[in-house]
Amino acid sequence: MNSDLLKTEVKYSIYLPDGYDYSERHYPVVYLLNGYTGDETSWIESGGMQQIVDREIEQGNIQKMVIVMPDGDDRLYMNRTDGTYPYEDMFMKELLPYIQNNYRVRKTKRYTGISGLSMGGAGALRLAFKYDQHFGACAAYSSAIFTEESVTSSDQESMDGYISKAMPDMVGTKGEKRLNKSYREYDVLQWVKNKDPELLKKVKIYFDCGDDDFLTLGNAQLHKELVLRQIPHEYRVRDGAHTWPFWRESLPVGLKFISDSFWK
């Protein structure tokens, strides 16, 4: 897809369910986001999503759906804070309409889901919370959600590498200075704390994390904040780490959660 906003081509992979080419049916759609250093092929090549989704549909666990996997390009699914690369605007204003206009997908919020792992899990949650009028359900796995303590104490090289393409103004910052306006825009926890709880309730939320994952504390904090604000959600901790074996087990669970939401 050529993006006028980004002035470049945005790559994506798309899963079309069996029978798509021979029907006139319009299908629910899920946007499935990759993690840091991944791209539009990650869920297919490393996650085995095609085999997983085919199996889950065949067994009747999930509805037939279209699944769109855009290249996250390490942009954290947000607009670059210096205004030079509005990835989030592209996602909402160009990619969604492009998919709706070029594939037979249902356009209403009820039949639009969003999902992802790690960077993509945080991106999915943030976009679902921010654009509750567009997404009916969200399923996130091992989401890149950080406690303030982990942000302020993180290794400089690791932090700068993760945020450099989205938040250049954070590069080189240390300690409390990392908790600036740009980071608050990224932080899923801030969205939960600051947005009207009644609007947060408009999106069905599922998220999980492995008990050996370095992001366990951040995800547990999200669960705590949602409970404090009485936001319905499903949160699961399973045996596992920040690895593809964990996410391959998460995907059918998350897609079933989203699929069930289409009909509730």
Description:
With about 260 residues, this protein is an alpha/beta fold. The protein has one domain (about 1-145, about 190-260): Alpha/Beta hydrolase fold, catalytic domain (Rossmann fold), CATH 3.40.50. It contains eleven helices and nine strands. The chain has helices at about 40-45, 50-60, 85-100, 120-130, 150-155, 155-165, 180-185, 190-195, 195-200, 215-230, 245-260, and strands at about 1-5, 10, 10-15, 30-35, 65-70, 110-115, 135-140, 205-210, 235-240. The protein has a seven-stranded mixed sheet with strand order 3-5-4-6-7-8-9, sandwiched between helices. Helix 10 (about 215-230) links the parallel strand 8 (about 205-210) and strand 9 (about 235-240). The chain starts with a strand and ends with a helix.
Brief digest:
This protein is α/β, with parallel strands linked by helices and about 260 residues long.
Q: How far apart lie the N and C ends?
A: 33 Å
Question: In what order do the strands lie side by side in the largest sheet?
Answer: 3-5-4-6-7-8-9
Total domain units: 1
What would you say the CATH architecture is? Answer: 3-Layer(aba) Sandwich
Number of strands: 9
Q: Which class do the helix and strand fractions yield?
A: alpha/beta
What is the alpha-carbon Rg in Å? 18 Å
Unreliable stretches: none
Q: Rough shape? A: globular
Major sheet, described briefly? 7 strands, mixed
The proportion of strand residues reads 15-25%
Average pLDDT level: 97
> What is the number of helical segments per DSSP (H or I, 4+ residues)?
11
Helix content: 25-40%
Q: How are helices and strands ordered from N to C?
A: EEEEHHEHEHEHHHHHEHEH
